Amino acid sequence: MHLTPMTLVLLRTTIAMAAALVGALAAVSVRQVTHERLCTMISLAAGALLGVTAFEIVPESWRLLGGSGRALGATGELAVAAAGGYLAFYLLGKFVAHICPACSATHSENFFSSVNLLMMISIGIHSVVDGLGIAAGSQGQGSKVGVFILLAVSYHKVPEGLALATLGRGSGYSRAKAFTVAGLVELTTQVGGFLGLLLLGRVGAASQGAILAAVAGSFLYLVLHALLGEMVKHEEASVVKYMLLGFGSLMLLAWGLEHLGLAG
Fold first, then answer.
1. Per-residue pLDDT for 172 more than 50?
2. Where do the structural domains in the chain lie, given as residue ranges?
3. CA 20 to 30 Å from 7, out of 13, 81, 131, 262?
4. Which among 136, 120, 42 is positioned nearest to 85, based on CA atoms?
5. With a threshold of 0.90, does the pTM exceed it?
């Protein structure tokens, strides 16, 4: 069945948002989310994001930037765009509010006790970029890179929704209000998807490649922030184990979808 670009992006951003709501539902359904459980989910998600960044987004971005005919120039442009995406997330987290409370179990436990407006804005911007990445990967029916991005973002959305709803509960919200706030913030994923549709429909392949590279840079920031923070403070072997499990399970799932004809 052929889907229009708008329908495809709407479907994929809805799946990603649903993953966040699964995490939020888990947070409001249990008495306490343990550090070990949150760290495990964060490490799994980081592995998935690392896999899709290294093996799908970066090569696709390089191809769109014309890498086969101008390897050096395309590599430089990719590096600059990726650095821009990384730097934007770093500055947003440093000077506005933490952009991803789900990226470090330790940070979530020790430094964040409540949800505030700046944090919701910051996480909303993060989710807009997730939606933009989904839209960028959805250019072309059945695009394999699009399926990989959707899966990796969905992996990350579960602990993100979990952390956001947990912080809501820490702010004194009722279970229903904490869940609702998490859902409203995560709705910005779909906003990012629609913005991506509007933007990507008006630019050429090279610009699409640069946008994908910037998304790769933002994903790399999330991965490094998640893994390094936990590895410095806690058992390295456990973090690495679950990161590899996330990486491997993403690749296996995407391979299965491809062989079923559900990813081009």
1. yes
2. 5-259
3. 81
4. 136
5. no
